[in-house]
């Protein structure tokens, strides 16, 4: 759903990367929900998914985190070794 909404009527592949911060904005459309589920909470949840390793969904797709050089859209997390990681995009790969 996020890929369709963010592509703005352009055709995109199913495994197109989506910015993690854009996903946060889609998950929290109202100010009240942003107050209840802050970016810090979101970063914590992303860190837990990142530490889980190869996360596979029910339909067989795998969750993959990527980082790019656009520092405005990165989220800083700590992995299981307490090493700082920067996540920019989320991709669902087959």
Question: Keywords, please?
Answer:
single chain, 94 residues, alpha+beta, 35% helix, 21% strand, globular
Helix content: 25-40%
**Secondary structure tally: strands:** 5
Give me the secondary-structure category: alpha+beta
Shape: globular
Distance between the termini: 17 Å
- Major sheet size, sense and barrel closure: 3 strands, antiparallel
- What series of H and E elements makes up the topology? HEHHHEEEE
Overall tally of domains: 1
Strand order of the largest sheet: 1-5-2
Structure description:
The protein is of the alpha+beta class and 94 residues long. The protein has one domain (14-87). 35% of the residues lie in helices and 21% in strands. It has a 3-stranded antiparallel beta sheet. It has a two-stranded antiparallel sheet with strand order 3-4. The chain is globular. 7% of the residues are buried. The mean pLDDT is 82.
Write the layout of secondary structure elements.
Elements: H1 2-7, E1 18-19, H2 20-27, H3 31-36, H4 39-51, E2 62-66, E3 75-78, E4 84-87, E5 89-93
Antiparallel strand pairs: 1-5, 2-5, 3-4
Short description:
This protein has helices at residues 2-7, 20-27, 31-36, 39-51; strands spanning 18-19, 62-66, 75-78, 84-87, 89-93.
């Amino acid at each position: 759903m996020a890929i369709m909404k963010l592509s703005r009527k352009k055709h995109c592949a199913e495994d197109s990367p989506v910015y993690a911060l854009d996903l946060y904005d889609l998950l929290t459309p109202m100010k009240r929900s942003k107050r209840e589920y802050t970016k810090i909470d979101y970063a914590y949840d992303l860190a837990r998914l990142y530490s889980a390793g190869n996360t596979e969904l029910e339909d067989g797709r795998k969750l993959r985190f990527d980082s790019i050089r656009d520092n405005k859209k990165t989220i800083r997390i700590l992995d299981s070794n307490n090493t700082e990681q920067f996540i920019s995009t989320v991709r669902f790969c087959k």
